[in-house]
Amino acid sequence: MLEVGTYEDTAAIFAEYDPRAPQIAQLLKDIIEAREPRLIVDHIGSSAVPACRGKGVIDLAVTYAAGDLEFAKAALDTPGFQKQSGREPFPETRPMRKAAVSALGGVFRVHAHVIERNGAEQRELTGFRDALRHDPELRIAYENAKQQILAGGITDSLDYSRAKGSFITSILVGQGLRPAIPLE
Predict the structure, then answer these.
(1) The pLDDT of residue 176
(2) Hey, what CATH class is 3-174 in?
(3) Most buried among 46, 70, 127, 148, by the most CB within 10 A?
(4) Segments making up each domain of the chain, as ranges
(5) What is the pLDDT of residues 2-58, one digit of tens each?
């Protein structure tokens, strides 16, 4: 049984890989796609890369066809995902929803990035995930970059995300992708 609860913002951390993350992502994918069949959900981010340590958040790309943004937002709002709050939330034209999901003996923080299907941002998010999956040295370099950011005293989650931006951008550019949104 999966329960969607209230998300609480916390300081950025460096967490061990949790092998339950792909199972949680699949459960959420099944729920979201059943609620709104026009959506496709991909597991992205560090939790989608076996053995990759990261911030301890399950990231999802919830993709919709052109014109279906409102359906996508409603499909996430209904089971209990919340609008992003805090300073500088994503705009509602490119929203992010968040939730705390209880299942498999744990509570998992989830970020659902609502983006247009087959666009540049989807290619970047899945491309970066795939690069990390296929290159263990790149995965280790990414983990080291994140540890250095935290060791430098950056624990605010927005500042942490921005600090990772130059590393991510360099990988995307190396793959021939141009970031659709500024990552720095």
Answers:
(1) 63
(2) alpha beta
(3) 46
(4) 3-174
(5) 889 899 888 888 999 999 999 999 999 999 999 999 999 999 999 999 999 998 999
